[in-house]
Amino acid sequence: MVLAAGRGERMRPLTDAVPKPLLTVRGKPLIVYHLEKLSRLGVKQVVINLAWLGGQIRAALGDGAQWQLKIHYSDEGERALETGGGIFRALPQLGQQPFLVVNADVFTDLDFAALRIAPQALAELVLVDNPTHHPHGDFALVNGLVQEQGGARWTYSGIGLYRPELFQGCSAGAFPLLPLFRRAIASGRLHGQLYAGAWSDVGSVERLAALQ
């Protein structure tokens, strides 16, 4: 699943007329870098959630045939359902097996095919060095388990493998992921790994310029 529903407030005025996933880096929309990579890996089915200016994304990407993909859209209406609510809404399209989740607005050379999720894990998160705009990070990582405290803190990259069971007990509507992560941490079922390669959260005009 590629998360593409956000408003991109920090990217304004660029995102007033263009949804953030369609902003270009060296002439290519951010989301297309992900689709090309997924296609090279042999992925066949991709779900993309839509909200702000979602019609532009649908028009630009179509059914995914040009990347040998089948794109399914999960339309959230005018207001996005936040990350948790957006994924929960799309679960019927994602099936019963673990699935890859990628934020449309990250740029990375991470090899998605190298990711694995342990049988007991509800999710496997990819953590990265804290960028300058997020110096305190999100989580610690202790013996492969994601923790809120207990060691050096790292930033969640916006990339992970999730099991549908992570969303057990959730209800339709807008809600964040963090409470679900905390519940998984409490049960020792939130796993993670560090990635030291290229990664950028393209969350502001300045960061987009730097990536260019």
Overview of this protein structure:
This protein has 212 residues and is α/β, with parallel strands linked by helices. The protein has a single domain, classed as Spore Coat Polysaccharide Biosynthesis Protein SpsA, Chain A. It is 25% helix and 27% strand. It is built from six helices and 13 strands. It has helices at residues 14-17, 30-40, 54-61, 82-94, 178-186, 205-211; strands at 2-3, 24-25, 28-29, 45-50, 70-75, 99-103, 106-108, 123-128, 139-142, 145-147, 153-162, 190-194, 199-201. Strands 1, 4, 5, 6, 8, 9, 10, 11 and 12 form a nine-stranded mixed sheet that branches. A hairpin with a 2-residue loop joins strand 2 (24-25) and strand 3 (28-29). The radius of gyration is 16 Å and the shape is globular. 40% of the residues are buried. The mean pLDDT is 93.
